[in-house]
């Protein structure tokens, strides 16, 4: 086979692999993001419950604080009453009123707190029920992410090896073949060469005349497709099914 042609074929094979690896490496952040979004959507119910639980717990703490505060006030008024030495009906009545008011408020807080405790217990039970499933999903996501990260690292390494191998390959090509390859590669979405099979250009499906096809098969000269302009080559192994 024509030496330039066989070098061009190797170069294109290399470039196709380089592009595949590049797109694999480049797509990692998008794949990661999509997976995280899927995960977030799949555990949305759980996260909503968790949020309700957090809010309920915060409300419960606030009620506990309010209750304690009110109990202290209540106690203070009781102490004031005990400390009264001279009977003063007006002060006495005021203190008694305060004792009564704080007692009522305490009772309201206690009732609310009981309700709130029931609520948080229910929410805790619900989130607890779902937690194992959620954790299993997260584990699966993490496993997938680790697998991708490791595959990407391998691809990145391979990519660097191929890029290093490309420079000498390009240098070996003659100046004309190199510029033809570059030009076609740019114009034809990265594929400067096309396989000729069954009297057709595989890239553009254009029929190839038998005489030209036989020339391509011999591979002695560089022949381009009349339709798409790509350099045509014949793969011997493709002929035998
Ligand atoms: Zn073609």
Class computed from helices, strands and strand pairing: mainly alpha
N-to-C SSE string, H for helix and E for strand: HHHHHEEHEEH
User: What value does the average pLDDT take?
Assistant: 93
Rg over C-alpha atoms, rounded to the nearest angstrom:
40 Å
- CATH architecture annotation name of the largest domain: Orthogonal Bundle
Could you tell me how far the N terminus lies from the C terminus, measured between alpha carbons in angstroms? Answer: 22 Å
Given as residue ranges, the uncertain stretches (5+ residues, pLDDT < 50) are: none
- Total domain units: 2
Number of helices: 7
Proportion of residues in helical segments: over 70%
Q: Can you list the strand order of the major beta sheet?
A: 2-1-4-3
The tally of beta strands, per DSSP, is 4
Small-molecule binders here are:
zinc ion
> Biggest sheet, open or closed, and with what strands and sense?
4 strands, mixed
